[in-house]
Design brief:
elongated, single chain, mainly alpha, 119 residues
């Protein structure tokens, strides 16, 4: 009876070992699938952001095309880009107002020391 018990125990150990390896292998496969799913989720997120940026760019380009389709828009673009003017127009230069510099009044002793080069 001890041989049967030994063989039975041996079969149980082998079966348990095979089951353990099978479980580890399945866990490894599930881990790989989860990793691929995460990569795909990030790819979808990045693609959506790129699509939003491209749609914003398309809206800007469409607005530029609409502006250039009018004569006034073409003229404004030429003036802004190349700095041209119509014949007879003059240049207007806007000068910012000058800031008044206030003279700092020195006390008498600083003037006196400044005369001798100490201040």
């Amino acid at each position: 009876m001890s041989r049967r018990t030994t063989r039975s125990n041996m079969r149980q150990y082998v079966t348990a070992t095979l089951l353990a390896f099978t479980v580890l292998w399945l866990l490894w496969l599930v881990w790989g699938i989860a990793r691929k799913e995460e990569i795909a989720r990030h790819a979808v997120k990045d693609t959506k952001q790129e699509l939003a940026a491209l749609e914003a760019r398309q809206a800007t380009l469409q607005a530029n095309m609409n502006e250039l389709s009018t004569e006034r828009g073409q003229e404004a673009t030429l003036r802004q880009t190349y700095g041209v003017a119509r014949p007879g127009e003059e240049v207007i230069i806007v000068v910012p107002p000058e800031k008044e510099v206030e003279e700092v009044k020195l006390p008498w002793y600083k003037k006196f020391l400044g005369f001798f080069g100490f201040w």
